[in-house]
Amino acid sequence: MSAAPQLELVSHKLCPYVQRAAIVLAEKGAPFKRTDIVLADKPQWFGQISPLGKVPLLRVQPPGSAEAIVFESAVILEYLEDTLLPALHPKDALERVFQVFEDHRRLEDDGLGRARGLDTQQR
To answer: What is the pLDDT of residue 115?
Structure first.
């Protein structure tokens, strides 16, 4: 088994997209460094590695390989799901769809759907 890459999550404290990546890293128990930046005063190094100038950004340093930069929260989440255990979603596409449906149904059943403004009326 190869050694795990070093991971650094470049973030801003209030960015909800960063929180998604931080939650997945925590759920997977993956060690990572979190570096918060001030978006109104971005450091020069950030501009050199971020093609969009946005957070989150994941710096991936595989042992013996060049650093890779993964950007955009959805892409970061996909990378983490594909490369780190445990899996948070079923591999089978239909199982994933039904898991999302079941999660939505649970929101409706416990009243959280209404509290969050979701239309929970049966049609």
So the answer is: 56
